[in-house]
Write a sequence for this structure.
């Protein structure tokens, strides 16, 4: 069976495919033209890599339709052309509209129209929280994942001007931002939410702060949204910026985040996010220092106030102080200086768009700072670590998730909440969200450093999402082939239809809107950095 990118490649992209049990040691590539006849244009030898066989077709650069042949086996056709992923981008943006909650445009129609409940502090009252998005193949509307997802959409809208846009971006962003403004309490904290029990009726929100990462995510989203609408609708933009700064001030002055998050609901069922998802989610840890730096940066862009940029630099200095700079773990980050546990090991929604994604953003922004060289050194160390980890595993054996090979069998635990190891994704559990994140980081780093290995593995991550994976399946419904059937478990009821543009969370898995946001950003970064030559 061939494992390759089902859509195709840009002309200058590295192009590698994988086979499990080839019939022969050589392969050929064929193209088709106006004669409607397949013609051989390239031949090559397969190379053994672990239990797999690799073929390199990078010399194929001419635009056209192609297929790979090995013995009697032939792949489906794929394309080589400039911007081959334009349709993919359009489909993923429509997935947001399908996932709307309470909208006639959503897959569930005008659902969840009852007034919700605000519980806690000895009083209960009704709360109008209609709107937002179903995060996955379910009825949840989680603040952290959905805000992360919309932030990815917003960044795509900022950087893209497709001919089909025609006001779609503004409409979708208003829909999402109008929901997230409701999540901000008068005091400035984000209402906690777990939605148990889950169904078509009213949902439960809690009059206590949600996780710290939720506050930074929504602060960033509102601030960046204010910047996006600054010229289009100044009054609307001002409202969103006011709320973003309210959330920021609450985080700075509250002691609620000095310890890890504890859910408002005990004995949560499978499919919900309990303490074990958020054990690194508190002040003065690397992940949240980075999220704080990212939030301050977005506030700086929205306001132009230097105090926010100074805070970005200060927080990034804390993050960089936690990076391991020697030995086999070089490039990784400690959670805190007082322990050896690794950072970024809790719920990924808290740092999908911060972490090294943000560090690359900061460098690419061109913002002048005496710390810029230190930022670049830290990012390069991290990306070199990713390359080292990728080299330990055959391509397409599964998704290598670089946390350091010496740490895979010593996963940190989350005391005092659970005795079970944190469920880290590793190289035998192929995570599409991690693939999208690494594609974005490495493509960004390629734009900064111009290293060929960064471009190669960035493309590999993209290929993984679109067919070069153990299932030989596209992770995006409606694009490519062999789409996995979604799992049904926990709170994933009722089963969601196979929606075009939906991106699954892992192979096999269920839809997850945050992955869509990361994937959109990665695709825009590929457009801007594809073909970058190695700098001398």
């Amino acid at each position: 069976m061939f494992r390759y990118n089902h859509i195709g490649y840009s002309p200058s992209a590295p192009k590698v495919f994988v086979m499990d049990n080839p019939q022969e040691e050589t392969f050929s590539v064929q193209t088709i033209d106006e004669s409607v006849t397949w013609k051989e244009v390239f031949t090559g030898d397969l190379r053994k890599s672990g239990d797999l066989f690799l073929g390199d077709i990078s010399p194929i650069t001419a635009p056209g339709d192609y297929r790979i042949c090995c013995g009697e086996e032939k792949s489906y056709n794929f394309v080589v052309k400039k911007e081959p992923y334009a349709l993919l981008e359009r489909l993923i943006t429509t997935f947001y509209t399908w996932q709307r909650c309470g909208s006639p445009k959503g897959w569930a129609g005008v659902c969840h129209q009852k007034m919700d409940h605000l519980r806690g502090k000895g009083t209960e009252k009704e709360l109008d929280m209609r709107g937002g998005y179903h995060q996955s193949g379910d009825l949840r509307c989680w603040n952290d994942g959905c805000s992360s997802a919309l932030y990815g959409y917003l960044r795509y809208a900022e950087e893209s001007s497709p001919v089909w846009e025609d006001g779609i971006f503004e409409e979708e962003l208003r829909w999402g931002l109008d929901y997230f403004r409701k999540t901000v309490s008068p005091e400035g904290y984000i209402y906690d939410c777990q939605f148990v029990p889950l169904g078509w009726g009213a949902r439960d929100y809690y009059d206590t702060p949600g996780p710290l990462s939720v506050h930074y995510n929504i602060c960033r989203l509102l601030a960046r949204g204010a910047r996006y609408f600054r010229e289009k609708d100044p009054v609307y933009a001002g409202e969103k910026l006011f709320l973003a700064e309210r959330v920021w001030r609450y985080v700075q002055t509250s002691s609620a985040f000095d310890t890890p998050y504890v859910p408002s609901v005990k004995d949560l069922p499978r499919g919900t996010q309990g303490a074990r998802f958020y054990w690194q989610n508190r002040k003065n840890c690397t992940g949240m220092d980075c999220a704080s730096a990212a939030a301050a940066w977005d506030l700086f862009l929205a306001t132009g106030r230097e105090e926010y940029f100074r805070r970005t630099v200060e927080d990034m200095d804390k993050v960089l102080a936690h990076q391991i700079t020697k030995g086999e773990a070089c490039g990784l980050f400690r959670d805190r200086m007082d322990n050896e546990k690794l950072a970024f090991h809790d719920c990924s929604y808290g740092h999908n768009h911060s972490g090294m994604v943000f560090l690359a953003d900061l460098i690419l922004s061109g913002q002048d700072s005496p710390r810029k060289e230190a930022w670049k050194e830290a990012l390069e160390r991290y990306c070199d670590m990713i390359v080292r980890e990728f080299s330990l595993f055959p391509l397409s054996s599964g998704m290598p998730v670089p946390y350091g090979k010496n740490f895979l069998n010593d996963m940190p635990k989350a005391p005092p909440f659970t005795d079970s190891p944190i469920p880290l994704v590793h190289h035998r559990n192929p995570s599409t969200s991690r693939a999208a994140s690494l594609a974005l980081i490495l493509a960004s780093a390629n734009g900064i450093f111009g290293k060929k290995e960064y471009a190669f593995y960035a493309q590999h991550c993209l290929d993984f999402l679109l067919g070069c994976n153990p299932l030989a399946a596209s992770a995006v419904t409606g694009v490519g082939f062999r789409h996995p059937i979604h799992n049904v478990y926990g709170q994933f009821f009722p089963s969601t239809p196979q929606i075009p543009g939906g991106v699954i969370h892992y192979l096999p898995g269920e839809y997850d809107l945050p992955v869509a946001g990361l994937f959109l950003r990665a695709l825009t970064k590929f457009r801007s950095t594809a073909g970058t030559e190695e700098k001398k």
In short: The two ends are 40 Å apart (CA to CA). The first helix runs from residue 86 to 98. The chain has a mean pLDDT of 87. The chain has twelve helices and 14 strands.
